[in-house]
Amino acid sequence: MDQQLIETVTRLVMEKLKDAENGQSNPVTESKPKQEKRNYGSVKVWDHVGEERAPKSFVSQTASISEQSVRQSKPEDTKGKNPGVDKPRNKEQLAELMKQTPARIGIGRAGLRPKTDAWLSFRFDHAAAVDAVYGTVSEDILKRLNLFSVVTRVNNKQEYILRPDLGRRLGDEAKKTLKERCKHKPKVQIVVSDGLSSQAVEANVEDTYLALKQSLTALGIEMGTPFFVERGRVAVMDDIGEVLEPEVVVLLIGERPGLVSAESLSAYLCYKPRHGTVEADRMVISNIHAGGIPPVEAGAYLGNVVQKILRYEASGVSLVRKEQ
């Protein structure tokens, strides 16, 4: 995405979040005030407060940017898509249901088998999911983001799938590299990992990462030296915490691919992750991709979450309890 557009959207999302925070009231003593609509020009941002029904995802659109230069932030339009069922009892209702979800409903069958189009579509999406798991992240994107690489204790992709525990631990050489090249005890440590989808990193991590960096810079939050972990699992952030001792770790990692999207990215956050950290202490913003939460808005929002974690010195369930 264009750098100027990333900066614009990030700034507007941060303004929106700041307005929401300043406009919060005590729900016990007074009712929630009606928020004034603000005009953000040609860029629309996710309004998750002040509305009875919030949109399901962020929306980022700029009139001056062509569709080819900006990834679409909503699923492919299924309007006019014909149900595969030959004689549905209620054709209009089935068509309406199919527009509401990318799931495989109303595809019909030929005897006991799925129809050819549905079967080929399934095979195509399954192949894309397999490619996402077994693929690798290109060196080009790592160079653009200035990320050096370290490897977990996993030797290959097959072992990565069979031994999740090895993906949660850094190798000895990786730990040595981090000690030599990374800032020690930073406020925030950003880490990128391929996880179970290299395609998620290829498609979404650049916009997410740049927006997150801009958000943290605007908030005056110090960042450590970012890097890439090959064949990592979520809990590798515990090993990273032991080596670098950051206050917050943000891990951008590829999600397990499905038959709807093979390029969905997740952002895991944890306050002072160390060996023994339980899953309840982690928090995640998932479904970051073109058909879910657009990467730029997700990155901008992550900065706000990091600020909250630092303020309360907690994450996950502990953060929720302290906020109450």
From TrEMBL:
Q: Name one GO molecular function term.
A: cobalamin binding
Alphabetical GO biological process terms: amino acid metabolic process; ethanolamine catabolic process
Identify the residues that bind adenosylcob(III)alamin: V234, E255
- Biased composition, class Basic and acidic residues, residue ranges: 31-55, 73-91
| Polar residues bias locations | 58-72
Assembly behavior: The basic unit is a heterodimer which dimerizes to form tetramers. The heterotetramers trimerize; 6 large subunits form a core ring with 6 small subunits projecting outwards.
Q: Which family does it belong to?
A: Belongs to the EutC family.
Name of this protein: Ethanolamine ammonia-lyase small subunit
